[in-house]
Amino acid sequence: EEEKRKYVKGKKLGEGTYANVYLGFLRNDTSQLVAIKKIKVQKEYTEGMAPDAVREIKHLQELSHPNIITLHSVFSSKDQNLNLVLEYLPLGDLEMLIRDTDRVRYGAADIKAWMGMLTRAVWFCHENFVLHRDIKPNNLLIAADGEVKLADFGLARSFSDPYKPMTSNVITRWYRPPELLFGAKHYSGAVDVWSVGLVFAELVIRTPYIAGNTEMHQINLICQAIGTPTEENWPGVTKLPEYTVEKEVVPIRGRDHYMAMFGTVGYEGVDLLMKTLILDPKKRVTARDMLKHEWWHKDPKPTRKQDLPKKS
Ligand code: ADP
Predict the structure, then answer these.
(1) N- to C-terminal Cα separation, the chain
(2) What is the DSSP letter of 81?
(3) Which of 13, 95, 159 is the best mutation target for the ligand 1 pocket, counting ligand atoms within 8 Å of the beta carbon and taking the most?
(4) Does 152 contact ligand 1 (Cβ within 6 A)?
């Protein structure tokens, strides 16, 4: 109630799958802009849910990192809707830059800078025992100084799953790792690393790398793009609840395949990409080890954040 009174809600900025986003400002200092994200809670879940969710999200407020969106405050309104007061980032997201091939040019140095920011954000989350679970270009917002900020953080875990989507927008499966598609109940930071790998691939080819229309289609496309998960390359995979692959086993793609497709980031860049897209989550590189990779020190150096391409 006190938190709610600190902010004034302004015009609607946009609508997402689970939320409406409004411009807001501090009642005491109207030059201080924020984004107020009002999460719609389905009626049958409202009873007692919002307070739980508030408690859950509160610890995210302590996650302070230059590449993670700042959560200023959380409050639930009288209708039990959950309101997140977030850093206002009006320059769009990485998806807008990737898609605007007519106007936005970028190269290997820019990709290295963006990937560095994303990897540090994910490393920081994992160091603090939080999984993001919904990393995709559209959740990477761009600050005025060029910094990329991981957003929609923790929402996937804390609130999204128990609620139905507000609109019929299908939640994208394109960044979902094979262990989740096979119904694994126990998973790790490796789920986020897979998504980071797919963002990396997409930054290079400027189109989603593995874009399935259904979960089954997504699994089939992973088999074709990466290789079929089997007991040989991933011990235990066939025991996962929803393990199903086509009879025709596709061998794991070799380095030459990745070089032909993603060679613009160099041998070392391709090596890092391949390590993020290892099928077995136990063998997949960790965010911590990603940061130790040689690619970051090879030429070209990452672009300085102030020199990165922006929305025109
Ligand atoms: P989605 O992730 O489905 O696009 P969101 O609920 O995250 O939906 O956001 C909906 C829209 O609100 C975004 O497309 C964007 O235009 C705007 N928006 C979200 N967060 C912010 C923010 N922190 N600052 C400025 N605009 C935002």
Answers:
(1) 40
(2) -
(3) 13
(4) yes
Collapsed DSSP state (helix, strand, coil) of residue 173: coil
Residue whose C-alpha is closest to residue 300's, from 94, 106, 107, 104? 107
- The total of other beta-carbon atoms located within 10 Å of residue 234's CB is 22
Question: From ligand 1's centre to the CA of 16, what distance in Å?
Answer: 7
Contacts of 297 (CB under 8 A, 6+ apart): none
89 C-alpha to ligand 1 centroid (Å): 9
Provide the b/e sequence for 18-28 (b: ≥16 CB within 10 Å): bbbbbbbbeee
**pLDDT for res 22:** 96
Residues 6+ apart with CB under 8 A from 242: 181, 182, 183
What six digits make up the tokens of 149?
Answer: 């900020």
Q: For residue 109, how far is its CA from the centre of ligand 1 (angstroms)?
A: 27
Looking at ligand 1, which atom is closest to the CA of residue 88?
Answer: 24
> Which residues does the chain have with pLDDT short of 70?
41-56, 58-59, 153-171
Scored b (16 or more CB within 10 A) or e, 278-289 reads: bbebeebbbbee
Contact 191, 177 (CB under 8 A): yes
pLDDT of residue 110: 98
Residue 156: its pLDDT value, please? 45
Q: Which atom of ligand 1 is nearest to the CA of 152?
A: 7
